[in-house]
Specification:
With 97 residues, the protein is mostly helical. The protein has 3 helices and no strands.
Length: 97
């Protein structure tokens, strides 16, 4: 009962609108903290999925390059022709890897 009287005394001292604003701010803080904890777990899972997808795309890109070079060798086309042609492209159109 002592805590209730202390709370009522603080409301008397501060005023009802300030006490309600403080209570709402505390509730908002707890809700934001809860949401951040929930979202952190979901973001970690999404990050892992994104990293695995990037790795798959990179491996598919390397496989595509290998197949392209193999096909050019089988068709007796010089694979360095493409490299020379890429070297003559403008800088913004060149491959970044």
């Amino acid at each position: 009962m002592d805590e209730a009287s202390t709370l009522l005394q603080q409301i008397e001292t501060l005023g009802f609108p300030i006490a309600i604003a403080a209570a709402l701010l505390g509730g908002l803080w707890f809700m934001a903290r809860w949401m951040m904890n929930v979202m952190q777990g979901k973001l970690d899972a999404q990050h892992a999925i994104l990293v695995s997808l990037i790795d798959r795309v990179r491996s598919m890109d390397h496989e595509l390059i290998r197949m392209s070079v193999t096909l050019k060798l089988l068709l007796k086309i010089d694979p360095s022709d493409e490299i020379n042609r890429i070297g003559k492209c403008p800088k913004d159109e060149q491959r970044k890897d």
